[in-house]
Amino acid sequence: AQTVTQSQPEMSVQEAETVTLSCTYDTSESDYYLFWYKQPPSRQMILVIRQEAYKQQNATEIRFSVNFQKAAKSFSLKISDSQLGDAAMYFCAYRSARSGGGADGLTFGKGTHLIIQP
Amino acid sequence: KAGVTQTPRYLIKTRGQQVTLSCSPISGHRSVSWYQQTPGQGLQFLFEYFSETQRNKGNFPGRFSGRQFSNSRSEMNVSTLELGDSALYLCASSLPGLAGVDTQYFGPGTRLTVL
Prior knowledge:
The structure holds 2 protein chains of 2 kinds. Chain A is an all-beta fold. Chain A is built from no helices and 12 strands. Chain A is globular and about 45 Å long. The termini of chain A are far apart. The mean pLDDT of chain A is 91. Chain B is mostly beta strands. Chain B has no helices and 11 strands. In chain B, the strands form 2 sheets. In chain B, strands 2, 4, 5, 6, 9, 10 and 11 form a 7-stranded mixed β-sheet that branches. Chain B is globular, with a radius of gyration of 13 Å. Chain B starts with a strand and ends with a strand.
């Protein structure tokens, strides 16, 4: 079974600064998908970014980018120009690329609580 | 396009009762997954439905069951409730995914409290 580890239970960053959230995973598969989800205090889980393992290029969105290191099984999220609205729990998740997505759905890490200091 | 909706948003039940939670996916999405979120165990996969068939199932007892209707709406049922079933139950929908993996979009969740 796959596992996802987020080693930082809580991170704090000043508004407008950059912060990096760590995620490592363990799998024997070569093809899979990785996700970062954000869960603000309102509890609605929101997709931040998605990465296909077969793509060498790191996924990017406005202010959000990942550092995907397949050999090291590392998938960190960098948030640039942090804003107060970025305060939330951030979850790293894994899903197999096998047909049907594998047997386990999304496998989540325990999450990182991101605090934005004004 | 409307997002994933879940009803009810809050529920209070007593031990031994049963409960049914409902999820309406994003229009056009045919896959629905359910997750349980607790402070101790985090987010755990319950099951996934696609075209009215259970495609995947997590490691939960048989008290947890679900189904999907022809309009892709899904329900999950928990029978003989236990205190440990208190959790936020999240539903997620995705586009048809017979091959490959589509991104899951989550609903706001149903907060179940078992007394």
